[in-house]
Amino acid sequence: MLALSIRQPWAWLIINGGKDIENRDWQTKFRGRILVHAGKGMTRDEFDSAAIFSFGRTGTAKLPPPDELQRGGIIGSVEIVDCVKRSDSHWFVGTYGFALRDPRPLPFLPWKGQLGFFDVPRTLEQFRDVGVAT
Hints:
By secondary structure, the protein is of the alpha+beta class. 19% of the residues lie in helices and 34% in strands.
């Protein structure tokens, strides 16, 4: 199954905070469910900027404290339904936006991230048990 590494707290916002666009400077033709990998890196400035941005956009997104955000592993899955150059979503700020729907949290699975889409073996028991097709 494909996965995409996303820095925290943006990964958390996709799974838990209603973020329905993942901004990228590259496009994709892929459509379907992917695993959301929370990258290891996150500075305090990045966290604070994301918190201010998400609150300013939604007025409601409340992030957990930085030390409670899981990093360096799979945290959930989401479906990519489109890749757009513009969107009415308040989360859209990129050159391209991966339009997302149906986020599903998963039990944390430590996993090394990579750039772009990367493959995670589809036979992992953890994914079958929580409703992600294998």
